[in-house]
């Protein structure tokens, strides 16, 4: 079922409530508007922050999304899913929570993350490569540690000379003194602060650590 809020000037609703199907490339999940959406029924919605199979997800649509053949948006919050996946977990990355473009699947447990990636790869082979994997055993194995394994990182420098993680879809950053990625290896944040302490950084520099 699709619950649509009052329409905006371009006739695109601000929010929709949809049921989710399988994962799409880039960390989104595919949904479609229901029959009660009128002439928009069946229209594809790519939803960030959702999980395959979830139902009743309240989705905040991106501005201007109605001008495209499909809609894009994000789940309004962790409590905005009426029927959550058993693989949904509490987000652990403060940088991602602040808007940084890291940890796209921060809200998925280890088993669900492996299943998600499995389904994306199989879909790419089948739909784009036209390779039938029905009789081919495709397995996944999640390596350990599941978090805190990243030993390399790339940072941007903002207008105030502060190093930080890029905000998704933007040249702006989340300064490292405000938040760091949960996937950074132990000691990386402390070591980075020590190394950068005596440096003068100028935008739009990139820092590779």
Characterization of the model:
The protein has 209 residues and is α+β, with helices and mostly antiparallel strands. 15% of the residues lie in helices and 22% in strands. It has three helices and eleven strands; from the N terminus they run βββββββααβββαβ. Strands 1, 2, 3, 4, 5, 6 and 7 form a seven-stranded mixed beta sheet that branches. A hairpin with a 5-residue loop joins β8 (154-157) and β9. The longest helix has 19 residues, at 110-128. Mean pLDDT is 84; it is low at 1-9.
What's the average pLDDT? Answer: 84
> What is the number of helical segments per DSSP (H or I, 4+ residues)?
3
Strand fraction band?
15-25%
**What's the shape?**
globular
Q: What distance lies between the first and last C-alpha atoms, to the nearest angstrom?
A: 47 Å
Low-confidence stretches: 1-9
What is the percent of helical residues?
Answer: 10-25%
Quantity of strands, as a count: 11
The biggest beta sheet is recorded as: 7 strands, mixed
Structural class: alpha+beta
Sequence of secondary-structure elements:
EEEEEEEHHEEEHE
Give the radius of gyration: 20 Å
């Amino acid at each position: 079922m699709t619950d649509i809020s009052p329409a905006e000037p371009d006739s695109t609703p601000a929010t929709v409530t949809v049921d989710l199907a399988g994962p799409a490339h880039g960390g989104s999940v595919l949904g479609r508007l229901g029959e009660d959406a009128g002439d928009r029924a069946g229209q594809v919605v790519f939803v960030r922050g959702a999980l395959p199979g979830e139902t009743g997800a309240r989705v905040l649509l991106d501005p201007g999304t109605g001008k495209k053949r499909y809609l894009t948006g994000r789940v309004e919050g962790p409590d905005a899913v009426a029927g959550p996946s058993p693989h949904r977990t509490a987000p652990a990355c403060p940088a991602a929570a602040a808007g940084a473009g890291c940890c796209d699947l921060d809200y998925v447990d280890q088993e669900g993350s492996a299943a998600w990636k499995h389904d994306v790869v199989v879909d790419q082979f089948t739909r784009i490569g036209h390779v039938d994997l029905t009789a081919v055993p495709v397995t996944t194995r999640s390596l350990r540690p599941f978090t805190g394994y990243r030993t390399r990182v790339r940072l941007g420098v903002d207008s105030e000379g502060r190093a930080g993680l890029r905000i998704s879809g933007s040249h702006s950053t989340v300064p490292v003194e405000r938040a760091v990625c949960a996937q950074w290896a132990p000691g990386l944040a402390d070591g980075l602060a020590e190394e950068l302490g005596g440096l003068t950084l100028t935008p739009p520099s990139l820092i590779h650590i």
